[in-house]
Amino acid sequence: MAVRPRDLDPSAMAAVDALLRAHVAGRGRALAEVGPELGPVVDVLDDAVSGGKRLRAAFCLWGARAATGGDLVDGAVEAAAALELFHLAALVHDDVMDRSDDRRGRPTVHRAFADHHVAGGLGGDPAAYGSAVAVLVGDLCLTWSDDLAAEAVARAGAEGPAARAVWSRMRDQVLAGQYLDVLSHSRGISSAATSVRVLRYKSAKYTVEHPLALGATLGGAGHDVLDALASFGLAVGEAFQLRDDVLGVFGDPAVTGKPVVDDVREGKRTLLVAWAEEGASPGQRAALRRHLGDPEVDADGLAEVREVLVDTGALARVEARITELVGAAAADLATVPLDDGSRAALDGLSSACAWRAA
């Protein structure tokens, strides 16, 4: 059976879920006071906050436990909830930039509000309306996540300022990574070095390294523990994103909740693509140029891209890199003085990131 982040610390994760629901519900009531027109916004936020793997929350909670020998500390639940709201903001905005129609098996926020526009007979462009509302929804999640982060810092006492610095660094680096991603798409260049830098700052660090650091800092971890956890977290975060890149082209939409053709239509310049271009023949390179970034690419075009990714050895190379990263993470984890529960949980989370099907 696959490891699920929610199963590793059920009581703490239940507290995170309860805090998220209460926080969003409270903010939703404030929105509703403005007028009934805000009802659809409140509804989509209530719905969105109930989903997801809670991966970042799990790493934060176990980072705190790792620092204390198994105990949670004041502020850890608030920090974990803040990470989940920050992640939701990133997803909403990322879906707008990627023009994705589905997320977690549901319409994305901008798609849902474009549909509201059509159903309500509103004037103007439905797509522009949906994107505008989604930007606002993402902004709400971002500001609410910062409110929860501030609560975590306040509850943490002496460790609060250092935890706030981790949060701020994470927030800045994610946005920087997102910009690098947008820039690389516009340039149409798939160098391996650029692809790795994008995946580190856009995803890997804020998925694992920074949540671990946030929890461990709240728990008062020393520099030796923080450094070892950072190395472990970066390796696991990179494995997570590489698996995401593979699933984006070869995954099962019924399991991932996203159309498998989206990454090709968007023309994502992943390490998988970069390595394919390195080893491609002129004909294979022409096929990649023809289909990557084509918004009208069909099943035949997707099949042709998949064939190139396999035949150039790029897919096998990415799978080998994932295995290598998991091994490096395990070696890093072995250097950290941990209680048995924290070590087992972090090992399980590493496997969940690398070998997941969704």
UniProtKB/TrEMBL annotation:
Q: Which GO MF terms does the UniProt record name?
A: (2E,6E)-farnesyl diphosphate synthase activity
Q: Which InterPro entries match?
A: Polyprenyl_synt (IPR000092), Polyprenyl_synt_CS (IPR033749)
Cofactor section:
Mg(2+)
Per its UniProt record, what CDD domains does this chain match? Answer: Trans_IPPS_HT (cd00685)
Keyword list, A-Z: Magnesium, Metal-binding, Transferase
- Lineage: superkingdom: Bacteria
Pfam families on file: polyprenyl_synt (PF00348)
The EC class name is transferase
E.C. number: 2.5.1.10
Stated family: Belongs to the FPP/GGPP synthase family.
Protein's name according to its UniProt entry: (2E,6E)-farnesyl diphosphate synthase
